[in-house]
Specification:
Blueprint lengths: L2 E7 L4 E7 L9 H13 L10 E6 L2 H13 L3 E5 L4 E3 L17
Parallel strand pairs: 2-3, 3-4
Antiparallel strand pairs: 1-2, 4-5
């Protein structure tokens, strides 16, 4: 079972969905993803609140990377960290420092 936390930011009309799976290589269930993708397209949450954006937040980059393509296809954001401090997942970001490669200290 995944640890999950949902948070609605009323000011930004954004739903933040934190998911922490026991196995990092676990996809968000398709039914859940399609439900949130539809909610974003319809512009309202289950409770009828206005909704502009839906974002998933994962505790680690491995899970974010594993889910990123499916989430992007569904027009849902991918973040790493926590609901309180989400960091946008950038699949193109290098996993090493290029500064040292160019002699920049």
């Amino acid at each position: 079972m995944a640890k999950q936390e949902d948070y609605y930011d009323k000011k930004k009309q954004t739903m933040w969905l934190f998911r922490d799976y026991e196995v990092a290589e676990t996809l968000v269930p398709n039914e859940e993803l399609m439900q949130w993708s539809k909610a974003a397209r319809d512009g309202k949450t289950r409770d009828g609140e206005p909704l502009k954006v839906v974002n998933y937040v994962f505790p680690n980059e491995a899970t974010a990377e594993y889910n990123h393509s499916a989430l992007a296809f569904a027009s849902v954001g991918t973040y790493v960290g926590s609901v309180k401090k989400p960091i946008a997942y950038d699949e193109d970001a290098p996993t090493f420092s290029t500064r040292d490669d160019f002699g920049i200290k």
